[in-house]
Design a protein that fits this description.
This protein has 2 domains: 6-156 and 332-347, Glycogen Phosphorylase B (Rossmann fold, 3-Layer(aba) Sandwich); 176-330, Glycogen Phosphorylase B (Rossmann fold). The chain is 36% helix and 13% strand. It contains 12 helices and 11 strands. It has helices spanning 44-57, 64-79, 101-104, 120-125, 140-144, 188-201, 219-222, 238-247, 262-269, 299-311, 313-330, 333-347; strands spanning 6-9, 35-38, 84-87, 107-111, 131-134, 149-152, 176-181, 205-210, 230-233, 250-252, 274-275.
């Protein structure tokens, strides 16, 4: 298998920086492993080519640059019969799998989103996918009904960039900061209820909300906009994002569902204790073992857990160390990359 070539179909996720997201995997593939990245320039000619592919295949209206990338991957695998393809975000590239059943046998795709995210028509197309990686275990049985060969591998963390700031004291260098990062699959009504209760009980607490302005247009966020103890953030640099994680006392992120959540992953690497709900893939990322969980929509238990951390800095710091240790031992990208290549080589 030493001469096998791997092609990674990469996605551009605009809200991820240079150290966040699944595409970081490519940076850690061993230099002795032959691999290339499918991520052609976003030129007019490439978009026009993608449009032609979409029209020829009868695909629905979509980002035509994505169509062109899929065509390039299919062409590379057709020209290199021993090569393996990896569609890094299956949810974005289901049309690719209508090119060729033979190519599908040599193509892996990674599942990020839980079943609640998927539309029925998209689930029907999953039967075309032959091999997949899933980033959490809870829904493997569900996806196995569609995909015959499926493997669990953790999402990685950039533990060299995201790390604790040993010089910052969370109880003396300022107020105790609670952070909500992101909006996707979050239980925003629960966050609103819990945030208002905590701010009413504790004058030594402030809340940071990292959510782009275009996603703040709902009644729950609107109710918090006039609170002087709530601070809003968006469009942060990598360093600003890391600082926000490092200087937060807790990540407060109630979820309705979850696959592999990048806010939780980066928090683990920074040693930021997490207060969240027992849903989806949270258990694969320390939930219940490294840090306690509460059941979804159980405001009383979440408020109780927050108060426990706020009143017990030593316990908070113990969980912080455990979070960092989990990230270093389980989520380091070098180990994660090796597991991907091992699965590719063993299977194909």
């Amino acid at each position: 298998m030493a001469d096998k070539k791997f092609y990674f179909l990469k996605n551009y996720i605009p809200w991820f920086g240079n150290h966040t997201g699944y595409e970081q995997l490519i940076r850690y593939i061993d230099k002795d492993v032959s691999h290339s990245v499918i991520d052609p320039p976003r030129t007019i000619l490439n978009r026009m080519s993608g449009k032609a592919v979409s029209l020829l295949k009868g695909w629905p209206v979509r980002n035509q640059h994505e169509s062109y990338k899929e065509f390039v991957l299919a062409l590379k695998l057709q020209l290199h019969q021993s090569a393996c393809g990896h569609v890094m975000y299956l949810e974005n590239h289901l049309p690719y799998f209508s090119f060729s059943k033979k190519l599908n046998e040599r193509t892996f795709a990674t599942i990020h989103q839980p079943p609640s995210f998927w539309k029925p028509d998209d689930l029907d197309q999953l039967y075309l996918v032959k091999r997949a990686i899933i980033l959490y275990e809870k829904d493997m049985e569900f996806f196995s009904k569609y995909i015959p060969d499926i493997h669990f591998i953790h999402h990685g963390a950039d533990i060299d960039f995201f790390k604790p700031d040993a010089s910052y004291n969370h109880t003396s260098d300022g107020p105790m900061r609670l952070l909500l990062a992101g909006h996707h699959l979050r239980n925003i009504p629960m966050f609103h209820r819990v945030a208002e209760k905590i701010l009413a009980l504790r004058k030594d607490v402030v809340i940071d909300i990292l959510v782009p302005e275009r996603f703040r247009d709902n009644v729950h966020f609107e109710a918090l906009k006039t609170n002087p103890s709530v601070f809003w953030h968006q469009k942060l640099s990598d360093e600003e994002l890391r600082k926000l994680f490092q200087q937060s006392y807790l990540l407060l992120v109630p979820m309705n569902d979850s696959g592999a959540n990048t806010a939780i992953i980066d928090s683990l690497a920074c040693g930021l204790p997490i207060v969240t709900t027992n849903v989806g893939g949270i258990g694969n990322y320390g939930g219940g073992a490294v840090y306690p969980l509460v059941e979804n929509d159980n405001d009383v238990d979440m408020i109780s857990l927050l108060l426990h951390y706020l009143d017990n800095p030593a316990e908070r710091n113990r969980i912080s160390v455990a979070c960092r240790d989990f990230a270093v031992q389980t989520l380091n990208w070098k180990s994660i990359a090796e597991k991907h290549i091992a699965v590719f080589n063993k299977t194909l």
